[in-house]
Amino acid sequence: MAWTTREQRYFMRQVTRHALLYTEMVTTGALIHGDTARFLAYHADEHPVALQLGGSDPAAMAHCAVLAEEHGFDEVNINVGCPSDRVQNGTFGACLMGEPQRVADSVAAMKAQVSIPVTVKTRIGIDHQDSYEFLHAFTHAVNEAGADQLIVHARKAWLSGLSPKENRDIPPLDYPRVHALKQDFPALPMSINGGIVDLDTTADQLEHVDGVMIGREAYKNPYVMAEVDRRFFGSDHAVPSRSEIVDSMRGFIADHLQAGGALKDITRHMLGLYHGQPGGRAWRRVLSEQAYKPDADLNVLDAALARVEPLEAVA
């Protein structure tokens, strides 16, 4: 939430044409009773893109799945992994691991209404319910309900005592548990998530599971995804350079500014493009200091690019 916005997703689509992108999590209540058009808005170039839902009422989940399909999303995903207090108070997210039948009922209700894939993202456990048997029973329930894919964050979640940020770092990763789960459910497409920061590790994981979800690293260091299309999707398109990615954003940024948007809405997602590169710190500094000004425009992007382009050519 507040990270994989439509601006961020458009930017990532300039890096990879084929990786599946996920929206921010939107609750069923917000989608049904709030600004539906805003929550379902995306750029046509974002495909393939999945709508990520938070909720626990099967009828409401099915209704939102229909909205997702009507608006052209390629997948609808149930979030059973977020551990924040706000999510728990709404009885969705990671706490739903403790109610596998409720999740299964939502999957079944959604599958009955839409033809697009219905997927579930979960943890390997919650609190003291962290045995393999617990994870297996949860997986069995959603599999029987017809889930099209399970995406497993290979950490358990502590619903109390740890912040959402701490829940992404402190509970230890357990990749072998996810690999064992795939062996026990060979027909259920399964992706792994958590702590994966490079494509070599991705390739290693694909020896055990069907897919890999990369979250924080793709945000912090988006160019790590630049080789994904060629390496995993068989694409013969040239890998874009960082400066080519910046240039491909110009039209989108101009349209956003013309519509009354702010430059920072987009450039805050681009700060990591030159992560680890000569001039990367200057790139971030120019964007961070200047894009937040009320009159910031494409000249700010040019100023930031001028700090790295000569260095990129040398590198």
TrEMBL record:
<dbReference type="InterPro" id="IPR035587">
    <property type="entry name" value="DUS-like_FMN-bd"/>
</dbReference>
<dbReference type="InterPro" id="IPR001269">
    <property type="entry name" value="DUS_fam"/>
</dbReference>
<comment type="similarity">
    <text>Belongs to the Dus family. DusA subfamily.</text>
</comment>
<comment type="function">
    <text>Catalyzes the synthesis of 5,6-dihydrouridine (D), a modified base found in the D-loop of most tRNAs, via the reduction of the C5-C6 double bond in target uridines. Specifically modifies U20 and U20a in tRNAs.</text>
</comment>
<feature type="site" description="Interacts with tRNA; defines subfamily-specific binding signature">
    <location>
        <position position="165"/>
    </location>
</feature>
<feature type="domain" description="DUS-like FMN-binding">
    <location>
        <begin position="2"/>
        <end position="304"/>
    </location>
</feature>
<dbReference type="InterPro" id="IPR004653">
    <property type="entry name" value="DusA"/>
</dbReference>
<dbReference type="Pfam" id="PF01207">
    <property type="entry name" value="Dus"/>
</dbReference>
<feature type="site" description="Interacts with tRNA; defines subfamily-specific binding signature">
    <location>
        <position position="281"/>
    </location>
</feature>
<feature type="active site" description="Proton donor">
    <location>
        <position position="82"/>
    </location>
</feature>
<feature type="site" description="Interacts with tRNA">
    <location>
        <position position="79"/>
    </location>
</feature>
<keyword id="KW-0560">Oxidoreductase</keyword>
<feature type="binding site">
    <location>
        <position position="153"/>
    </location>
    <ligand>
        <name>FMN</name>
    </ligand>
</feature>
<comment type="similarity">
    <text>Belongs to the dus family.</text>
</comment>
<protein>
    <recommendedName>
        <fullName>tRNA-dihydrouridine(20/20a) synthase</fullName>
        <ecNumber>1.3.1.91</ecNumber>
    </recommendedName>
</protein>
<feature type="binding site">
    <location>
        <position position="121"/>
    </location>
    <ligand>
        <name>FMN</name>
    </ligand>
</feature>
<keyword id="KW-0521">NADP</keyword>
<feature type="binding site">
    <location>
        <begin position="193"/>
        <end position="195"/>
    </location>
    <ligand>
        <name>FMN</name>
    </ligand>
</feature>
<dbReference type="InterPro" id="IPR018517">
    <property type="entry name" value="tRNA_hU_synthase_CS"/>
</dbReference>
<dbReference type="InterPro" id="IPR013785">
    <property type="entry name" value="Aldolase_TIM"/>
</dbReference>
<feature type="site" description="Interacts with tRNA; defines subfamily-specific binding signature">
    <location>
        <position position="284"/>
    </location>
</feature>
<keyword id="KW-0694">RNA-binding</keyword>
<feature type="site" description="Interacts with tRNA">
    <location>
        <position position="168"/>
    </location>
</feature>
<keyword id="KW-0288">FMN</keyword>
<feature type="binding site">
    <location>
        <begin position="215"/>
        <end position="216"/>
    </location>
    <ligand>
        <name>FMN</name>
    </ligand>
</feature>
<keyword id="KW-0820">tRNA-binding</keyword>
<keyword id="KW-0819">tRNA processing</keyword>
<keyword id="KW-0285">Flavoprotein</keyword>
<feature type="binding site">
    <location>
        <position position="52"/>
    </location>
    <ligand>
        <name>FMN</name>
    </ligand>
</feature>
